[in-house]
Amino acid sequence: MRIAVVDKERCQPKKCGQECLKYCPKVRSGDETVVIAEKAVISEKLCVGCGICIKKCPMKAIQIVGLPERLEGREVHRYGVNGFVLYNLPVPRSGAVVGILGANGTGKSTAVRILSGQLKPNLGKEEADWEEIFERFSGTELLDYLKKLRDGKIRASIKPQYIETIPKAFRGKTRELLEKFDERSILDEAVEKLNLKASLNREVGDLSGGELQRVAI
């Protein structure tokens, strides 16, 4: 089983010699393994994984990844044809901390977006309805979680990854920012636990990096 990933930003057919098309042995034999539209499109069914297109592409826009056959049909989300594919999801557990480790581009942010309800998984297709999603996760710990997520019984709070953007998005006192998002009325408790008392009456733009981290939490 092979996954062909084409970086849509790097792929520039009008600025290269279309080497992926020119040197593909399957194309030379008459197959439409590679088709050039606005971007290169690689047929994963026809691709033999020779790796020639990877080496010849001057834009370094192509990846061909070999995967175990057991993953076929186990896609959780895919970003279009020749786009990134996410397989499986971590399982959030009440009262526990779940860590997601991995290199850049391995799907950590996509997994978080799905588990927080920001992104509906498409199961590798153009779109999937919730019944298909529930069937896909039937018999797993994630089924109950996803049902609660769909029904609005779970709400996620996501700490910004780039804390330096907080002062750009909000101007005012730290207390005003925290009160704005204090939906559970636990401001005093949170301020105490995160040692933010001294920061409450300061401008958000004047906070240190460490203070911004705690405000984001």
Provide a compact summary of the structure.
This protein has 217 residues and is α+β, with helices and mostly antiparallel strands. It has helices at residues 19-22, 25-28, 52-56, 108-115, 130-136, 142-150, 166-169, 174-180, 187-193, 209-216; strands at residues 2-6, 34-36, 40-42, 62-66, 75-78, 85-87.
Please provide a written account of the structure:
With 217 residues, the chain is an alpha+beta fold. It folds into three domains: 2-69, Alpha-Beta Plaits; 73-150, no CATH class; 163-216. It is 29% helix and 11% strand. It has ten helices and six strands, in the order βααββαβββααααααα. The protein has a two-stranded antiparallel sheet with strand order 1-4. A hairpin with a 3-residue loop joins β2 and β3 (40-42). The longest helix is centred in the last third of the chain and has 9 residues, at 142-150. The protein starts with a strand and ends with a helix.
Order of helices and strands: EHHEEHEEEHHHHHHH
Rg over CA atoms = 23 Å
Count of spatially separate domains: 3
The N- and C-terminal alpha carbons lie at a distance of 41 Å
Q: Which residues sit in consecutive blocks of at least 5 with pLDDT less than 50?
A: none
Give the fraction of residues assigned to helices: 25-40%
Q: How many β-strand stretches?
A: 6
Please work out how many helical segments DSSP would assign: 10
Oligomer: single chain
Instruction: Tell me the structural class.
Output: alpha+beta
Order of strands, widest sheet = 1-4
Q: What's the rounded overall pLDDT mean?
A: 90
Strand content is: 5-15%
Q: Major beta sheet, specifics?
A: 2 strands, antiparallel
Global outline: elongated
